[in-house]
Amino acid sequence: xxxxxxxxxxxxxxxxxxxxxxxxxxxxxxxxxxxxxxxxxxxxxxxxxxxxxxxxxxxxxxxxxxxxxxxxxxxxxxxxxxxxxxxxxxxxxxxxxxxxxxxxxxxxxxxxxxxxxxxxxxxxxxxxxxxxxxxxxxxxxxxxxxxxxxxxxxxxxxxxxxxxxxxxxxxxxxxxxxxxxxxxxxxxxxxxxxxxxxxxxxxxxxxxxxxxxxxxxxxxxxxxxxxxxxxxxxxxxxxxxxxxxxxxxxxxxxxxxxxxxxxxxxxxxxxxxxxxxxxxxxxxxxxxxxxxxxx
Length: 295
Description:
Mean pLDDT is 82; it is low at 1-14. The chain has helices at residues 27-32, 91-100, 162-165, 176-184; strands spanning 8-11, 14-17, 19-22, 41-55, 59-79, 83-84, 111-135, 141-157, 189-199, 202-211, 215-216, 225-226, 230-240, 245-252, 286-293. By secondary structure, the protein is mainly beta. The protein starts with 7 loop residues before the first strand and ends with a strand. Strands 3, 4, 5, 6, 7, 8, 9, 10, 13, 14 and 15 form an 11-stranded mixed β-sheet that branches.
């Protein structure tokens, strides 16, 4: 890119520009008003309820914590949007060129971004865990665990600088896609059911995990799309000898689940088949074998 005569270059249908990531104390960041003195501050409110019950000599039922929480974080440190300029564009675009290309820098940048304080978030949630263990005598031991999580995050404030706010059309420092990544970029609910049976040296386990829906956001609402709700099944069998040798065979994502495919309107050239917002990735079924030795 060295030697470009202009910070913005057109090559047919593609617009290229030089971009830089500045430290918060750099000259360009200082001119844009990026440095803020506030330190990140967090506040946590939590309510935990626990209980347990035992029945008979062979059965044990345990209810582990029900955990309700609220987490407030002020002045989170975030990466700003890519603030673009154009020396022949609108008055705002021309002014930004002057900010990100300080006199004497000879950078010829067409865009810049920097780290800044100023995003406030509020998260409320509930975690529930229940466990049931059963000694079945000669038939082995059964351990069943169920868990559920519910949570919601809201962005309550976004960063602004007096320098950029003074421009004719202030550019956003923390736009829609970044805001929705905090608010809807992770599942609002998740359920897990785990069953484990063991008898002597042998054991079997199975786990069902249900993920709530997730939004893959864009600054353009028309390009938003949902990842979808999905249930994953993991199964495994194991054998552990008294000599310390262990063998395990298992299948992760046995039902071969994938998130919703990236829509054509977003994936115009076909390089991204599945969204990176998927909470369980996009690798499909995974079969494995494991040999271990403990001493």
